[in-house]
Amino acid sequence: MMIERFSKPMLAALIGAAFLVACSDDDTASKSQEDNQKEAFESEYKAHEYHPVLIKNATVLTATGDKIEQGKVLFSDGKIVAVGEEVEIPDDDNLEVIDAVGKWVTPGLIDVHSHLGVYPAPSVASSADGNEMTSPVTADVWAEHSVWPQDPQFQLALAGGVTSLQILPGSANLVGGRGVTLKNVPGRSVMEMKFPGAPYGLKMACGENPKRVYGEKGMAPMTRMGNVAGYRKSWIDAKEYMNKWDDYEAGKGNGQPPKRDLRLESLAGVLRGEILIQNHCYRADEMLVMMEIANEFGFKVTTFHHAVESYKIADKLAENDVCSAMWSDWWGFKQEAYDMVESNVALVDKAGACAVVHSDSATVIQHLNKEAAKAMTSGNRLGMDIAPAHAIKWITLNAAKAIGVDDMTGSLEEGKMADIVLWDGNPFSVYTKAEKVYVDGALMFDRNNDKFQPASDFELGIIEPEENRL
Amino acid sequence: MSKVLKSLTGFLLAMTFVMTDVKAETILIKNAKVYTMTSAGTLDNADILIEDGLIRNIGEDLSAAGATTINGEGRVVTAGIFALANQIGLVEIGAIEGTNDAANQLEGLGASFRVDDVFNPKSTLVPMNRAGGVTRTLITPYNGLSLFAGYAAIMDMTGDYESLILSDVGIFATYGEYAAGLTGGSRASALHELESAFNQGKEFLNNPEAIKSGQYRDLDYSLGDLEAIGRLLEGEIPLVISVNRANDILTIIEFSQKHQIKLVLSGVAEGWKVSEQIAEAGVPVMVNPMDNIPSSFESLGKRYDNAALLSKAGVDVMFKGSSHNADNVRQAAGNAVAYGMPYEKALAAMTSIPARVFGGASNYGKLMPGFKAELVVWSGDPFEVTTYPEAVIIDGKQQSLMTRSTRLEQRYKDISNDNNTFYRK
Hints:
Helix content of chain A is 27%, strand content 20%. Chain A is α/β, with parallel strands linked by helices. In chain A, a hairpin with a 2-residue loop joins strand 2 and strand 3.
């Protein structure tokens, strides 16, 4: 499945790598051709087994713009079967019917900007693995290789209704490395958490961070013009690398595949449209420069993150079909975060651009629904008429689009993954909590049943030997 | 002049001040839900008459000739938010050192480090937080080289050059992991340092003249710091100490009892585990009810219902927040309520209780006749994320709700019609 997303040259390279490993071991060398084609670090996630569920009498926000009062949501075998006022109820003894009077249902929330696992709790140097600050372009590093699956913050995010999240490297570098999209499920390895079929992201960073980190070391980049030179050099290298592979593919040259280069492989993946640019960029003028670079080299910026000034160029973002991932109200911690307006999300949305509320925080990720509520309120104070049925998109369907999984999840539509949250009230209220959280149709969290309250290894006996941390 | 209390406990002095500094404005808020925080409780449909900077009357069917009337129907009125333990007016942009006056790196300037003199009332953080309902703030320095960060002060959010309400209302200090780091790597060395500071503070109180005139053995602390610690030892003001782990909390309580000082605990991640002991010692606490991340090994037990459990045990709980987004404390209060804290206790945690602990309670924190008219008219439940302030009143005057952020919004809200934004006002 996922292999189809990769270009032939890259696939050849991946197979080559797998073969080399296999050669060192006679047993594995004899494995079937199919096994050998398994790409490195492929998703091993399997949806948990669960019975079919019908939630009825709920207020349902579909994230396609609809609000259904007294709505029903039916899901089975990991997929959404039906959503509406009336749905055909199957004759199935295993069907669990949940009467959700006074409760609300939304798609599972998606955070497009998280560092859970790569900056786990407790925050100590020995497990702070999010920022490879050794070179301005580290497109060769993959965030997933830093993810600690036992980070107790994953479970806190789950209790906040988050079912999928993109884990990104930090923003010290011009190109920080690959991000990975996870299902918020327990796993002994990151591969067991990887969202099957989700494209990789490539983290880039504008502005203050790269120029500060490297400028202080007396090396490039030291300025914003140094930043831009750094990006452009990288894309020139990537283009050359891609052409070499294309030539090899076309049978030109000596028939030997070019040597793999992990850094250029990631960059070339962007040029081929297989890897999505996730660009930390606060200032409007810098976002315009980044879109210019994308035009120059023929790729696309999928999403600007921490896009504090998107409201200043909302029309351009709409024109270029670029998503903006934003906070509701963070500001002032650095100069490029000075021009915050609380209506940023609403203004971007109003212009017809893709608006997303993100966290970049182990705390805010637990309250994305309230962040969306604040952003909605700020827009309405400016005279807009934004309802929860629309604002819910900022943390579900639009977020899914921003990381390239909107054809699979992010809305309550027939056939999509049954990533679903049952809230104990209106999720746009400070008092409301996620009561049940389903990932691919399986109950992964239940506030009222401790059998469905996962605890990572970290939680066990760490304060009292007989107890879990919480 | 700056050290003169802008509002004193004496009603007369307060009146004098109000008469000279605030234009006589009469405001009548009609038909609002009013959290009085007095024995009168919460009034579902009440009027508030404001004259000469003070609340003149609260009741039904009030009227006043020529009053500016605010429609309170469906609205909620509370005392203005008292934001706690932040650097409003001390920092403009966190990452730009030149705009940050919160800490010093001088030897011998710890407990006596005082920052209210450098409070910048024209900082954009003042209107930003005021528009969010913050009417006064407890500003505190950061730790520099010393375990003692320095004096806290209460400032108002009018943006006037005279913003000081009360100076020297407490001395902030730290214990636990961070304190260990400052003193060579162990909590034991931090504790030794605290002991030494308080013992020498006692020596200073007993021999002030000899020490000041140099006829005494050399002490480890500057005269200013010894004097400041002396004020703690005399029980004049509280020591506010940041501490998180349960046994560290008990250590500090024992320490405060040994030296007979007033104590306030800040942080208190594992406070819920020793809530009975905190309550028994009568120590108020400052917590952040939005933080449940076990971010260090000393805060492994951090949880959302900490505020609720402490409050249930009888501890006076206050909420602390950030600087730029100090107004978000009301969302934090909502979170505390969602996790079991009684509503009015959560409201008190950001209004009347800090006034009782740090000062100003004689005329702020309750809505009753004779108290300062320092209040907010909210569009609804102030803890809700869909609610906002419709009117913010300080010293009886309606405050501007305009901010740098709303100016930018106005400039860019119709971006598609005219890209030439530089000529927009």
